[in-house]
Amino acid sequence: MAAAAAFRHLSLPPKLPTFPLPTTSLTKPRTLKLKITLCLTVKQSNDQGLATQNAAVDNLRVVFAAGGTAGHIYPAVAIADELQLTKPSTKILFLGAPNSMESTAVPSACYDFDTVPTAILHRPIFSPQNLLLPYNLIRSFVHSYSKLREFDPHIVISTGGYVSFSTGLAAKLIGAKLVIQEQNRVPGIANWVLSFFADIVFVVFNCTIDSFPSGRTKCVVCGNPLRLSLKKQVPRAAARGRFFPKAGGVEELEKAKVLLVLGGSLGANAINIALLNLYYQMLLENEDLFIIWQTGVEAHNEMESLVKNHRRLLLTPFLHSMELAYAAADLIVSRAGAMTCNEILATGKPSILIPSPNVAEGHQFKNASLMADLAGTRVITEDELDSTTLGSTIEEMLADESKMAELSERALKAANLNASVEIVQHVLSLVNLSTTREK
User: Fold this and answer.
1) CA dist., res. 64 & res. 183, Å (int)
2) Where does the Glycosyl transferase family 28 C-terminal domain start and stop, copy by copy (predicted)?
3) 103, containing H or E segment
4) What is the largest CA-CA distance in the chain?
5) Which residues 6+ apart lie within 8 Å of 171 measured at CB?
């Protein structure tokens, strides 16, 4: 962590080696002890005067292209929240897929939402499912162009998802500024291509810069934006009381150990199965253990039919009040999505990460590797995952309170809580500069 602290105040990122795209299969070490020292989250201090610029755009209009998973949606919501705080007159529109997670999550966050047809790139690239990709891309582009012409945004912010590519291209055609926020260490294909047209690419890690063409001229290292709700200090006792109102009073909840299991917004079958064969025995053997188990929306009905009711177990398809969940938890078992990793650091929680092998470009394995280096996170590959391995790792970590405290401290030191502020400052600077030139 001394290395991370040393890099934090550098005005320019050090020159780092390029990280190649991952191979098609994961290695199977029996014990993962990963040390990655070159790819650290760094807070750039370039352009310190961004926040003090006096130029202002009246009636600023911003479009966010985001969707597919919570990992794309919530970074956009975090940036939108910060924009509203900084410039309350800003008009914001989200574009996403119909009947999707974003179609519910965005209106719940009180932002306007409109739909665009999706163009999905299936894996492998030469899959027969991609035969209609050109048609779907054109259709998505035409709809995106129409929506942008109607809203007439100053800037389009893409955080990823099925509609982000066509919306990004349409943004350049109507003359709007385009910025990308990449959450992962290595960008996906869509963001890589969009970066040719983008004005700014916001990245989390220094090592991501060399993964983009012209990275050093466009990339800004800011970290992943954090939702405002997660920045609030929620009392642990109050959070636990919300999840377990029938527990035996404040005293029982205070001495309890709470395990939070997150399979991602869409669920994680491997984690669910491993926990299914484990949870009840753990609850029987550990009277102080409480479990909050997010199964994922698609898996909830099946899990609910298989899981026995227990007063110290909460089974839920999705957690909307994540600030309460993190506040209540002592230890987190999760996939290794970029935003989840960011939230784990920001809330200072020890964690066990089980990266999904099915995510494009091997993002989650790379995220988990970095978390192991920065915060001492325990990593279990899906090939290694079974009930015995998961159970023994959970018990070992919960039993060592001093180690848990050390891991919590390391996570907090690695977190960047001001990413959304920095991103908004750069966005306003970009729009102000563009407006000034036009005048």
Assistant:
1) 15
2) 258-412
3) helix 101-108
4) 71
5) 63, 148, 153, 155, 156, 177, 178
| DSSP H or E stretch at residue 395 | helix 387-399
The one-letter amino acid code at 123 reads R
Residues 6+ apart with CB under 8 A from 432: 53, 55, 56, 57
- Among 21, 49, 150, smallest CA distance to 95 is for 150
DSSP 118-157: -----SSTT-GGGGGHHHHHHHHHHHHHHHHHHH--SEEE
Give me the amino acid identity at 296: G
Render the burial of 38-77: b for 16+ CB within 10 Å, e for the rest. Answer: ebbbbebeeeeebeeeeeebeebbbbbbbbbbbbbbbbbb
| Distances, alpha carbon 280 to alpha carbons 86, 254, 296, 311, in Å | 48, 22, 19, 11
> CA-CA distance, 40 to 140, in Å (whole number)?
36
Q: Give dist(CA 346, CA 359) in Å, integer.
A: 23
- The kind and range of the H/E element at 63 are strand 61-66
Query: What domains can be seen in the chain, in order of their start residue?
Result: 53-224+418-433 (3.40.50.2000), 230-414 (3.40.50.2000)
**How many CA atoms, within 13 angstroms, populate the side-chain half-sphere of residue 288?**
13
Whose CA is closest to 155, among 430, 420, 423, 421?
A: 430
Spatial contact of 337 and 364, defined as CB atoms under 8 Å apart: yes
Q: What pLDDT tens digit does each residue of the chain (439 aa) get?
A: 444 443 333 333 334 344 343 443 333 444 444 333 334 443 444 444 444 443 456 789 999 999 888 889 999 999 999 999 999 999 999 999 998 889 999 999 999 999 999 887 767 777 787 788 788 899 999 999 999 999 999 999 999 888 999 999 999 999 999 999 998 888 878 889 999 999 999 998 888 899 998 778 999 999 899 988 888 889 999 999 999 998 877 889 999 999 999 976 666 899 999 999 999 999 999 999 999 999 988 889 999 999 999 999 999 998 888 999 999 999 999 999 888 999 999 999 999 999 999 876 688 998 899 999 999 999 999 999 999 999 999 999 999 999 999 999 999 999 988 999 999 999 999 999 776 656 5
State both tokens at 330: 């002592």
d(CA 155, CA 387) in angstroms, rounded, equals 48
As a whole number of angstroms, the distance between CA 286 and CA 12 comes to 50
Q: Which residues have CB under 8 Å from 110's CB, separation 6+?
A: none
